[in-house]
Amino acid sequence: MADPVVYILQNSTITIPEMCSVLLDPQCMQHLGLSVTPAVNWVLPLPKPKPFKPRPDSGKQMKMLHMTDIHLDLYYTPGSNALCDEPMCCRSTSHGHNNSAGYWSEMSGVCDTPLSFTEEAVKHIGNNHKDLDFVIWTGDSVPHDEWNCSETGNLLHINTTTNLVKKYLKGKSVFPIIGNHEPCPFNMYVPNEVSIKSKGQMSLSWLYNTLADDYWAQWINTASAKKAFKRGGFYSIQLNDRLKIVVLNNNICGGRNYWVAYNPVDPDGQLKWFIDELDSAETQGIHVLILTHQPMSACYESWGNNYMRIVERYANVIVSTYYGHTHYDEIQVLYTKNLITNETYPISHGYVGSSLTTFSRLNPGYKIFTLDSNGKALDYDLYYTNMTADNIAGKNVIPKWSSEKALKKVYGLDSLTTDSWHQFLTKAQTEDKLLLNKLRSNIDHGNHTKQACNDCVSALTTAKLVLKTPDVLKSAAKTICKTPGVVEPNRVCVGTLNIMSDPVVYILQNSTITIPEMCGVLLDPQCMQHLGLNVTQAVNWVLPLPKPKPFNPSPDSGKQMKMLHMTDIHLDLYYTPGSNALCDEPMCCRSTSHGHNYSAGYWSETASVCDTPLSFTEEAVKHIGNNHKDLDFVIWTGDSVPHDGWNCSVEENLDHIYATTNLVKKYLNGKSVFPIIGNHEPYPFNMYVPNEVSIKSKGQMSLSWLYDTLADKYWSQWINTVSAKTAFKTGGYYSTQLNDRLKIVVLNNN
C-alpha cells in the first residue's frame, strides 16, 4: 500500500478536509467549520425523460447462470491448518495446530477454494445446465491474501479460473466482472487520470489490458467495450435486440479504495458513461440488465447519491441488478426519499449471488435465473453443496449438489418486480416478526393446525433469507422486542435474542432438512400433510430393534438398597435476601430485580419466581447427608442452574454446577452418585448442539465446554469409566453398572 498511499497524499487534487469528508462523511466539512465543496458533494446532470417504447415480450424465455466470488486459491493444501494466525489459512505455510483442511474445501471461515473444487463446480454446472443462454460472473477470482498479493499472482488466479469457464461452459456468452480483489493492492483502483499523469508508473493497465485483449477477449469483443474496459474496468454488450448488459466497476466507489481521495468527482467518467448507455437504451427501446460486484451500500456518498439518481431516472429501462461480494444469497431493494413529503419509496432491486468460496463459513452455491425475452426475472433456483459432507465422503466422491427451486413460490411472491420485493421485505420487517413470535407460541402449545404450519413455513423462509449472520438478529433485537405481541420485558427479550442468535442462524443456514420438514419436526408431522407433502424419513424416522431374546435375571438376593432422588436445585448464587420477590422479569430475588416488594426471605422465597440461595442449598444437602447415612446411591436428575435464560453465560452455568457439585461431594461423601444434565445446563438454555455440528463447525458451535468439564473434572469420580466418558462427551448420556444385578442408564432427553 505504500506507493499508492504516498502518491495520493502528495498529489491529491483536493484538500485534506475534503479527503476526510470523502473517506468518512460529508458532515466532516461542517464539523471542521467549512462549507461543503463541489469535490465533496458533486451532482451530474441527467437528460430529461423521454418516451420509452420497448418491444413486447416475445414469450421466449432465457436461462442465466449467476456465478460469483470463486476466490480460487492455487496454494490451498488439504490437511493443512484450517485455523491459523493469519486472516487466511489452509496453505502449507499456515501456522497453527489444526491440521484439518478438507480435500474439497474448508468450512472454518478463513479459507478459499482449491482448484479441485473449483474445477468440479464449474464442470458440474456445465454438465447439468446445458440449456444456459448466458452467464454472469460477478467478480473475485483471487484469494483473500491481500498482504501477499502480486500482479503475477492475481493474473494467474484469474487466468486459471477463466480457462475452467471456457472449458466447461464452452460456447456460452459470458459477462465477466472484476471484483475488489482483482487489483493489487486489493480494493485500490487507480484512476485513468493518474495512469496518464504518472506515465504508467501508477496504473491498472496490467489488469485491464490483459483481460480485455487476452483472457476475456472473446467476451469483451467489441471496440467500444474494450475501450471502456481499458479506461476503468466497465463495459456494455448488447445481448440481443431487446436487452443490453451494462457492467459497472463500482469497486472504485468502495470504502477501501483510497484513490477516491485523489479526485472523487466521477472517477474515470464512469457514471457519465453509464448515463449515456442508459439514455441510448431508452432511445432504442431496449432494456438494461446491470452487473456490478459490490452492493451499493459500500459506496462513498456522492458516488452513491448520483448512482441512485441515475437509477431512479432510468427505472423503466433497468430490469434489475446482479451483485457479488458479500458471499451471501441476498436481495437488495434500493429506496429513495421524497424530500417534500419525506416518504420513502422503492426504485429498483437486485440479487446478490451465493459464492463458490466457503470463506465466511458458507456452503458454496450458484443460481439459475429464468428471464423473459426482455431480461426480467421470472423465477430462480438456488443450487448448493454441503461442503462438510463432501469432505467426509472424501476425494474419490465428487461433491453432491442440492437445490431449492422455484424460489418465487417459496417466498410467496406473485412476481419478482421491485414492488413485489419491497412488499416482501416490508412484511419481513413487520408481519414476520409476529410470525416468529407465533411460531414460538405454537411450538410451546403444540399447535399444529394448517394455519400454524403455513405460518411456520412463512416465518422460517423469511428468517432464512434475512438472517444471514447472527449480527443481523442481534441488531434487530430491540425492534423485534417492541413488536406487539411480545410479552417478555425488553431486557429479557433482547438478551434472549442475543444469546440465541448464533444457534438460530446456524440452524437456518445449515440445516440438513427442508423448511417444511423443519415445521414437521418443530410442530407436528401432520404439517407435511397440511402443506400437501408426503411425510419424509427426516420427519418420521424409525430405528430397527433387535428381536426379543430370553431375559434371565439373577433372583432377588433379599438385600435392600436406599436411593436418594434429588432434582432441580436451581441454585442462584446471586440470590439476595430482602430484595424484590416480585419484579418485572421472569426471575427475581436479586439485587438487580426491579420492583417494590422487598420481601425475599433469607432461606428462599415462595413467590414462585425466585431460585434457591446458596444458604438453603447447603443446609438442604447437609441435612440429607446427616439424616440419611444409610443411602446406597444417589440419583440427581439435573438443573443446578438458575432460570435467568436471558442473562446466562458459559462461565456462570459452570459456576453454579461446580458449587452444587461441591456440596454433594462434601455432604454425601463416599456415596455413588449418578448425575444428569437438565435443560438449563447448556448455554443457551435448552439448546443441545449435536456432536455432528460440533465436528462440522470445528468447535465453533459446541457443548464440549459442558460435556468435557463435567466428565473430566466436576463429575469425573462418578462418570468414571472410559465408555461412560466417551458417551457423555458425545451427547451427555452414559451408563454405569451399579452392581452385578443393576445397570444405571442415563439419557439426555433434553
From TrEMBL:
Domain of life: Eukaryota
Cellular component GO terms, alphabetical: extracellular space; lysosome; membrane
Subcellular location: Secreted
Cofactor(s) it depends on: Zn(2+)
Claim: Zinc is one of the keywords in the record: yes
CDD domains named among the record's database cross-references: MPP_ASMase
GO MF entries: acid sphingomyelin phosphodiesterase activity; hydrolase activity, acting on glycosyl bonds; metal ion binding
Name of the protein in question: Calcineurin-like phosphoesterase domain-containing protein
Source organism of this protein record: Medioppia subpectinata
